[in-house]
Write a structure and sequence with these properties.
transmembrane helix; 19 helices; alpha/beta; TOD1/MUCI70 glycosyltransferase-like domain-containing protein; 3-stranded antiparallel β-sheet; 15 strands; transmembrane; single chain; TOD1_MUCI70_glycTrfase_dom; TOD1_MUCI70; Spore Coat Polysaccharide Biosynthesis Protein SpsA, Chain A
Length: about 600
């Protein structure tokens, strides 16, 4: 007997159901109880005594079979419904996974109801990949219908469906210990598409707390009045002048480098050609800047830069005469003074003998070289920018309602620990580091603790600075530079003392974001001297061919790596210790971080 025939029989009286219930696929299953009509026939109620036991057994048997079939059908339907719900739920849940799997070219006109997640490829994949997925966090109603994209506004009025598209973005959980790789790594970051990032740009400058007018000391004949610290370029500010500069007022005049000359870059000790100075003094909404001094790094070309950024955001690279000579000899620089996106600015008559200290001038005093810039992104010369500047500014300034952003160190957050690490790595002579730390201790510097929250770190990873140029941020970088000028050039040691002194006077803070987020938009490469010290890859050919290749190299007149100029006075570093650390693979400066 088939299941269909069983469905036409009543439970105990042998009556027939309506034909609408015939078969389980025609909808009768849902209406099983309400659509069954039982007719009680008197004739069939009379059963002889002989057939009564057999009828009783047959009814019990058939009744159990019917109940069993109904239960099986109900169970099958429940499994089907629950399975469909689970598949639908998993499909929705997989949206975030698709964010990391759906590869699209960066900057290809992504719709404005999309958000852009930038992550990195699998282990061993050297390519940087940008991922764009439909915004599953906002922009859809309960029925799953997609709302139209928000209107594009040119500037200052970004419109989102209800909340910021990246509000619900969360970092993925860390991999299990067995799959973790050593060293710092980048992490995914949620960026808006370029159009939305541009629309998020504030229409007016941020408010500068208390300080409204900032002027700078000019002195053609600075005199050193104290035995320690300072330089002719910085004007030798006294300790009293230093203390006064931390008293925030509505109008202030402070030392901020360039104390000589009629304007920064003109007979100041950090000299730039007159025609170039005119170019720097033009108005720019946003600039990207970097520097290479002492031929210490190799220029890294930015990637994934949108067309609108290429047209509207200039990229300035400051170099000294030594670096210029090397670039011209290697045919990397011609009369156009451009290398890819970088506009090369040659600096003459550098103020310091230490290339690292010279690099702090454009890094911290960018507002003096560019007096009419609204926003700037600084990256060290060893870094390669791989995310559009508009997206970086939106993510770390505009979204956070901040005007200064810098990443915190990936491992250390205490200045005292950072000082010991600098000494151990031979970053600077130990006596100068000890003097600086002892000076700060007398001023009240304490080890970092939870009592400083919401401040999350006292040690920045200072190779990237994202800032808005307003009086309070200009003052901060001026005073930070004065500390670098007075003490060691290790700006990580002086960052927190300046920040804390200003924050104690005014309602102002710095966005110190995670270092893994910084590593998402810049890739760090080796310094040039470390590249030259690295051993060549093992030869593939036989030993005789390798010897012949070596003889060909010598015959071609190839010279070994350049000699590093000697350092003098307080800028002297322990060379043997430094190179020994480099050869050992110092993770701070020698690790290549673009292997994801």
């Amino acid at each position: 007997m088939t299941g269909g025939s069983l469905g036409l029989r009543s439970g105990s009286y042998g009556s027939l159901q309506l034909h609408s219930f015939n078969g389980f696929g025609g909808g009768g299953l849902v209406q099983g109880k309400s659509s069954v009509i039982v007719r009680k026939s008197p004739g069939k109620m009379l059963v002889s005594g002989k057939d009564r036991p057999l009828s009783f057994v047959r009814c019990r048997y058939l009744g159990c079979r019917k109940v069993s079939m109904l239960l099986l059908v109900i169970l099958a339907v429940l499994v089907f419904v629950l399975g469909s719900f689970t598949v639908n739920k998993e499909s929705n849940r997989s949206n975030l996974g698709q964010q990391m799997e759906s590869l699209v070219p960066f900057g290809n006109g992504v719709a404005r109801d999309h958000v852009v997640y930038r992550s990195h490829g699998a282990k061993g994949d050297q390519d940087n990949r940008n991922f764009s997925v439909e915004n599953s966090f906002r922009g859809r109603d309960e029925k799953g219908a997609q709302h139209p994209p928000p209107p594009f506004v040119s500037r200052g009025a970004a419109v989102f469906p209800s909340e910021h598209p990246c509000k619900n973005f969360a970092l993925p959980p860390p991999p299990p210990p067995a799959l973790r790789r050593r060293g710092p790594r980048p992490c995914p970051v949620c960026y808006l598409p370029v159009e939305q990032a541009i629309a998020s740009m504030p229409s007016s400058p941020s408010t500068s707390p208390v300080l409204q007018n900032l002027a700078y000391v000019h002195d053609e004949n600075p005199i050193k009045m104290e035995p320690h610290g300072g330089s002719d370029f910085g004007g030798y500010p006294s300790l009293q002048q230093r203390n006064d500069s931390f008293v925030i007022k509505e109008s202030m005049r402070v030392h901020c480098g360039f104390v000589k000359g009629s304007r920064p870059g003109h007979q100041t000790g950090f000299d730039i050609d007159e025609a170039v100075l005119t170019e720097l003094e033009q108005f720019y909404d946003i600039i990207v800047a970097s520097a290479i001094f002492g031929n210490y790094d190799i220029i890294q070309q930015p990637k994934n830069i949108s067309e609108v950024a290429r047209k509207n955001i200039p990229f300035f690279m400051f170099i000294d005469e030594e670096t210029e000579a090397y670039m011209r000899n290697s045919s990397a620089l011609d009369s156009s003074m451009r290398v890819g996106l970088w506009r090369i600015i040659v600096v003459h008559n550098v103020p310091y003998s230490d290339a690292r200290r010279n690099g702090k001038v454009p890094k911290l005093l960018l507002h003096r070289l560019f007096p009419n810039v609204h926003y700037s992104i600084w990256i060290d010369g060893k870094l390669q920018l791989v995310v559009d500047p508009y997206q970086i500014l939106e993510r770390f300034l505009w979204r956070q309602n901040a005007n200064f952003a810098i990443s915190r160190h990936y491992r250390r957050f205490d200045v005292f620990v950072e000082a010991e690490a600098n000494k151990a790595a031979g970053k600077y002579d130990n006596a100068s580091i000890d003097y600086q730390i002892e000076f700060y201790k007398k001023e009240g510097l304490t080890p970092y603790s939870e009592a400083k929250l919401p401040i999350t770190s006292d040690v920045p990873e200072g190779c990237v600075i994202i800032r808005e140029h307003i009086p309070i941020t200009n003052l901060f970088t001026c005073l930070w530079f004065n500390e670098v000028d007075r003490f060691t050039s290790r700006d990580q040691l002086s960052f927190s003392i300046v920040r804390d002194k200003i924050m104690a006077k005014v309602d102002w803070s710095i966005n110190m974001f995670m270092d893994c987020e910084r590593r998402n938009f810049v890739i760090q490469a080796y310094h040039r001297d470390l590249l030259e010290q690295m051993a060549p890859p093992p030869p593939v050919a036989a030993g005789t061919q390798h010897s012949q290749a070596l003889s060909n190299i010598h015959a071609a007149g190839k010279t070994p790596g350049r000699r590093t100029p000697p350092r003098h006075g307080r800028d002297r570093r322990s060379g043997s210790r430094r190179h020994r650390k480099a050869a050992a693979g110092n993770r701070e400066n020698t690790a290549i971080l673009n292997v994801f």
